[in-house]
Amino acid sequence: MDRTPGHDAAQEAAQEAIAKLVRQCIAGDGQAWQQLVVSQHRRIYAICYRFTGSSTDSEDLTQDVFLKLYKNLSSFEVQKGSFQTWVTTLTRNLLVDHFRRTRLDRASDSLDATFDGEEDGPTMADRLADPGKSQEQHVASLQLKSRIQDALKQLSPELREAVILRDLEDMDYKEIAQVLRIPEGTVKSRISRGRGELARLLQRIEKQQMM
Amino acid sequence: MAEFNQFNQFGNKQPSRSPDPAHCAQCEAMLTDALDRTLSAEDQTIFDRHLAICPDCSRMFIDARLGADLMSKLHDSRPEPTSALLERILATTGPEAEKYAASTARQNTLLSYPAPAAAAAIPAAYTASNVLPFKKRLANAFRPSALAHTLMQPRLAMTAAMAFFSIALTLNLTGVHITQLRASDFTPSSIKRTFYDTNARVVRSIDNLRVVYELESRVRDLQRDSDGGDATVPAQNSPAPSQSNSPSDQNKNDRNQAPEQQNQEKRSNPHPRSGSSRSLGLERSRKFTASLAQPGSSPEPGHEAPQVFDIFTPKIYNSIEQGGQA
């Protein structure tokens, strides 16, 4: 999470490469578009997955993001801003739309939902494997990740998006402020509140499981 | 959230339990920087001093640090999409997908949407919109291939077939043979003649129908029956005032006649069931026509007269007898 000068330089180089790809895409280069999709789809899928907690929804949303991206590629100005910020804004807008659309579906969700089928949860192979010490640790780690993902899903969307962009996507406060269209101070406040609430939610979930 | 609200957050109306509430908001603003270790030495001192005396902010800092640690665990394991996702995206987006979609999409016709083929030269993503100008659309619509595509559509073919069959049927019914048509047939006089000929033929064919004959003969029978009944019915039903002079005799005669009439009617015309159409049988119509033939007589005099006397005469008799005795 520390921002070193070397890290910044590498990021700048990556952004420059992406900007070049975008220019080629606008010129109608099919190969460049393919490269752009290959380089970006994992990141967009990860944002969607961390926000929704569902792999199928995330795949659909990722596809929607690229459809929208392709349609609006000509409106992106390379000189004006970072491509990553632009794509993240597109993704965030679609996620907010999806959140509003599925509000009724989530009304029946309960806090004590099982973790079966979660991507971070232990697989059947993990459970059946010889439980040596390292294996136990591995399973415990997977279960913890699954619980964190579940707690993240229960955060309010404002806090959730800020925490995801900062802690999982390593975006700086200025970029997050651009994406969320809020002041930097509010971004910082939301991130610290989101982290605090996540910790308390996780403690509550663990208490419920112990009972 | 209830647990979270106990802290003096922005917008929280609860009074702060902090001994130094003035610095709580400042502390919250510095929290992320404190966790990132990017606070200046002076700010760090203020922050540390406040945390030492404010239990709420201290708890918030601990929770936020724990939350950041938990998120760092998720940071290392990025969720991976399935390989099908990349194929799905590339199949639906990009210049290649556009070309493929354009080649398989419907052609621009008068009845369908604008042709993507015409827009294939300029990828849709890089144009302002997918709507073609009207001129271009019209030109595309009248291309031979587009016209052929329009004409070969099932709905148009079905419409043409239905129109052909209806015209052929009409011509056949009216006796017009297309093969025998000449230019002279289209003059006004010949058209008029054809119309009258056709009209006469239609009237003749209707007249020649067997059903019409049958109906006519049935009507004639009915008329004959009604003519024959005229002579008997009034004679039976009309009372004969000259035969009996006294009311008692008349009453007796009527009483005797009424059941006989009823029996006769029952024999000739059995009592119809309720709701049966037989209640409007031939007998009534016959009587009705008979009554029309004799002005001043009611359609059913035989029925009405006895009923009137049946009702009133016993009372009159009784009163006379009682009065006479009294």
How would you describe this structure to a colleague?
Chain A has 211 residues and is mainly alpha-helical. Helix content of chain A is 75%, strand content 0%. Chain A contains ten helices and no strands. In chain A, helix 2 crosses helix 4. About 4% of the residues of chain A have low confidence. The longest helix of chain B is centred in the last third of the chain and has 25 residues. Chains A and B meet through helix 2, helix 3, helix 7, helix 8 and helix 10 of A and helix 2, helix 4 and helix 5 of B.
Helical fraction of chain B equals 55-70%
Strand content of chain A: under 5%
* Apparent shape of chain B: elongated
Distance between the termini of chain B: 110 Å
Catalogue the unreliable spans of chain B: 1-11, 114-129, 232-249, 270-281, 295-314
- How does the overall form of chain A come out from the CA principal axes? globular
The beta-strand count of chain B equals 0
Radius of gyration of chain A: 19 Å
Distance between the termini of chain A: 36 Å
Mean of the pLDDT scores of chain B? 69
Classify the secondary structure makeup of chain A into a structural class.
mainly alpha
Mind telling me the C-alpha Rg of chain B? Answer: 54 Å
Give the biggest beta sheet of chain B.
none
Q: Give the largest interface pair and sizes.
A: A-B, 54 and 46 residues
The oligomerization state is heterodimer
> What's the SSE pattern of chain A?
HHHHHHHHHH
Task: Characterize the biggest β-sheet of chain A.
Answer: none
| Count of helical regions of chain A | 10
Order of helices and strands of chain B: HHHHHHHHHHHHHHHH
